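Subject: mismatched residue count in predicted assembly?

I count 1256 residues in my input, but I want to confirm that the predicted structure covers every chain. Input:
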Amino acid sequence: MDKNRDDRLRFHRRELLVGAAYLTLGMSKAHATMIVGHLPWTPNAGNPPTAALPGPWMFFTGEEGRAIEALADCIIPPDPQTPGGKDSGSAIFIDRQLAGPYGRQEGLYVRPPFMKGTRSQGHQSEQGPAQEYREGLAALDRSCKARFEGKAFAMLSDSDKDAVLKGLECGEFTLDGADGKAFFAMVIRDVQMGFFADPIYGGNRDMAGWKMIGYPGSRYNYLDWVNRHNERFPLPPVSMTGRAEWTPQTR
Amino acid sequence: MPSNRSTLAGIGLAVLLAGSAHAGDSDPQEFSQIERGRYLAVLSDCASCHTVPGSNQPFAGGRAIETPFGNIVAPNITPDLETGIGSWSDEAFDAAVRKGLRRNGSRLYPAMPYTAYTKMSRDDVLAIRAYLNTVTPVRNAVDANTLPFPFNIRASMRVWNALYFNHGDFKPDPAKSAEWNRGAYLVDGPGHCGACHTPKTFLGGDRTDQYLRGSFLQGWSAPDITGDTRVGVGAWSTEDLVAYLKTGHNRVSAATGPMAEVVSLSTEQMTHSDLNAIATYLKSLPGKQDHPQTLPKEEPAMVAGAAIYRDQCSACHGIEGKGIAKLFPSIADSSMVRSDDPTTSIRIVLRGARSVGTQAEPTAPGMPSYRQLDDAQIAAVLTYMRNSWGAAAVPVRPADVARVRSDTALRPD
Amino acid sequence: MAKILPKKDVVIIGLGWTGSIMANELTDEGLEVMAIERGPWRDAPTDFPPDYMQDELRYRVRHELFLRPDQLTFSFRNRIDQTALPIRSWGAFMPPNGVGGGGVHWNGEMWRFLPSDFVLKTHLTERYGAAFLPEDMTIQDWGITYDELEPFYDRFEYLCGTSGTAGNLRGRIMEGGNPFEGSRSRPYPTPAQAQPFSHTLFGKAARELGYKPFPQPSGNLSQAYTNPHGLRMGPCTYCGFCEWFGCSNYSKASPQTTILPYLVRKPNFSARDHSEVTRINVDKSGRRATGVTFVDSSNVEWEQPADLVILAAYTMFNVHLLLHSQIGKPYDPIANTGVVGRNYTHQTISSVNGFFDNKKYNFNPFIGSGSIGMCIDEFNGDNFDHGPHGFVGGGYMGQVQTGARPIESTLVPPGTPKWGAAWKTAVKENYLSTVKPGTGVHGSFYAYRDIYLDLDPTYSDRFGRPLMRITMDLKENEVKQNKFLTDKFAEIIKTMGADKLAIQYRTAPYDISTYQTTHLNGGAIMGTDPTTSALNRYLQSWDVSNLFVLGASAFPQNAGYNPTLTVGALAYWAAAAIRDKYLKNPGRLVDA
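Triage response: the counts match. Full output below for your records.
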């Protein structure tokens, strides 16, 4: 989202230079402005989301990537109807989120001192999510290697993977150097988030998660269906990037 | 009217009386003439060109008027003696407005619509002068010569005038009603509607055979405003047309782009009887009345367009394309959507638009920019809108969208 | 040194609901009004258009429309004996930012408070005796009655085009409406919204159990509407992206849809965005405000002098600015002295999710609006006899599901694994047939001596000023109230036909990390006694008579309803007092 905003501002500035009138009205939204006389307006306004680009990991190392993909497939296993967490892109989703403002804790209050509080006082760690993933994945592989003859998590058999994760969940399998229970809860949350977030962010590929549950996506008008009780909504899901039907199909 | 008073004496008197520089033969105390002039200045939309938008110096000039030949900067028409028109004689003012003649005898460019203003009477023009004399004089020297070669040679305007300029007052048609004649006068004279709505030759002259059938300027297509029922205002009632001009909005459409400015500076301030007259006149014009074939629903662009429309447009414009009166335009009923030239529709979808806010309709709803859709998608959804709900129009091609995208890329408006 | 701007008649801090209302009212008096807003200018076509507003990750999970904690946050602790720690990312509530304030991303619930809510202390003491109330409970009467506020409730409802069914029209109880509501002078301007399947099922079940269900009064409109300013709104399209999101199609009441396009046309109004007021300035006597100091986005400090200062920010920022400006005596819970920071309250929210047989029920749960739903009011305020139950307060409850955005709404029945094949199957089988009522139980939150706001000794903001410190916990009264209401609610969900229920009670300790609602109240409360209230009944500061403080910070305690309608009505009430009384004779409107 960030880069997009920068591009937009740069573009605006260029546009603004063309029209002196707009400069004097100070309509760039980046800075404090005066609003007088009429509602502000600029063409091409808005800040649409930037699509997560395909390609190599942006945050994870290769090893971390293998671990997170394995985790994604344990949390959302593939089945004949619906792909699993890995193939639907949850690992890519998390990678792109961690490489972006979320991973950097942008906008959060990160001033010291950091003190341990009660549970009801909320997250007080100095580490952001990016650091928590880095340390959590390293600790997971370290602990697996120690327990399973040098095998990293991704190399374990399916049943061993499940056993490790169940152990993490109930606190019986502890990690050296990370809170395994909290780490796994975070991974579950994020893998599932990727499965249900708009595909523009890299997960939920081909709207697999939405198709699975029958969610029709980022629509904006159900006026024709609000009174049709207990009848399945007939249209396919749509994402912010559209759906296949948006592209004219030349016969 | 004290027409025998010398210009200089007039200035002196005005300075004495008002403490500011008023000029010309008109008397600042002549309320009725000044008021008539003020209204004629509204009808003529003088402020649109001669006031920089957002500035608090009315008529001080300096706004660049885009023409196909380059920008022409509108002059200062406040009564400032040196930089405005304070020292002009009424004769000179009238010659400029109605004949396109500068004080040195050279020609104005027809960005100044003297080709239309010539339909006004000398009395009308002097009333405008009387009004302009009452506005605050602003010292603002404007360089009017900004056209590139060869258009900067004003002598060329002699030839142009010979081709395109018919000097003379409005001549009423006795066979028509007084209201119709008033409408014709307003449309062709002060309103200078043809300046935007009549197609132009390559030299910028009116193509009179296509009178008011839609044109193109400043990156917008101005629609057909004849009584054509498909692409003109033929399907609008007189009330629809009056509401549009008075409030910027009606059950079908909303004014945006340059027309938004025309509404707020001019038509919003017109009287109801004048707006009725304009409507009566415009609706009487036959237009071209052609009937293109509706595209079949199975056309790939129609299929894609229907999907995009439902997913992206129906939130405001409705699943059936009917919109919400005076808030969201009715795509189904909009002749603008079906215009031969889709430039404005493309531009609105691509870049978004803010409709005009008026006293009667202050909402000024906006259309978001859909620039993230690709050219084929925007072409498809517009093609669908132009060929649904009983409408028919030639498809919009992706290349049309690409053209508007690149033509408008650097525009600030 | 601050650059000094030309003086205005009125400066308004914050251009949300109350700032917009006040600006509009005072410009009508011909006053020169300047509004100063911390966040950006925002509007539907430019900031929340329908091509990408439906983004649960960006707007719900990452809170994009809200204030960023690094710009300003608060510290929090449950008890006086604990060390408060900063809220590093938003949890229990989401402070707004930007033009329109919370009015941009609220749900649009348009509830009036009950007549007894305004005289709560008197009412409860008379009915149950003073000993019935917990000893540390510090509830108060408001200093205003429902009947006094009614015309202003009405104005705000008609401003917004509110959709609903009247329950008490000029004293006559109306079929289909809320029979417990106070008498209203007019019906709602537009009919109630349509109700999706599960919402109507709730209504049916409630009726079977002997309750009188009614549609939730809604600022998401059932039909197109033109308000008294001539501003047009469209019909809600039930998109399911209301709360957390801006409305793309002009169908949710907000300052943007109901006031601002009209207001900006006035030549005596102007606004500055991206400008944060850091202090209300007072003269040497400390009794008169001289204007405000603000910092723009380039970190340039400005001073805007004004004759009248309207503090119209969100609850928390109102109190924060008063504390920083040293206006009004800060509250001290130990000594029980001072007024600024006292009677801070929230809302007692809980819910019950119902899991239905997917072969029989498809709720299309993604179809919804912010204030859709069928509700009952039998257990609100003092609509029932509290005598046998040992607590006071209550709330409305209802199936008010606002949509089913899939990150948050993919629920599984209790006992299902949280991940793996079983989880995946359960999600698939339950999404369309689960009832997830959002704020299903919407309970009151009364005031206590040791729940309050003050300045933090350790943590500071980007200007180096102390953060404001929240000391807040859930008391036994509210926990009991919530248990009672939640059980009643679960019974209705069960009667709807749910196979399985997931019941979540609200329990102590108050948790700052899980979302409850953003209905924070108090801290600068209105009242009749300057030793226990910061404002008089006209929301005028007792201490600085040319300062009025709008918003829910004036609530002496919170009722079992969403606050916005009362916040808006109070803004109109205060504006009327300024117009009719203050401007004619500037000074204290109430003798202390």
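DSSP finds eight helices and one strand in chain A. Marking this ticket as 'not a bug'.
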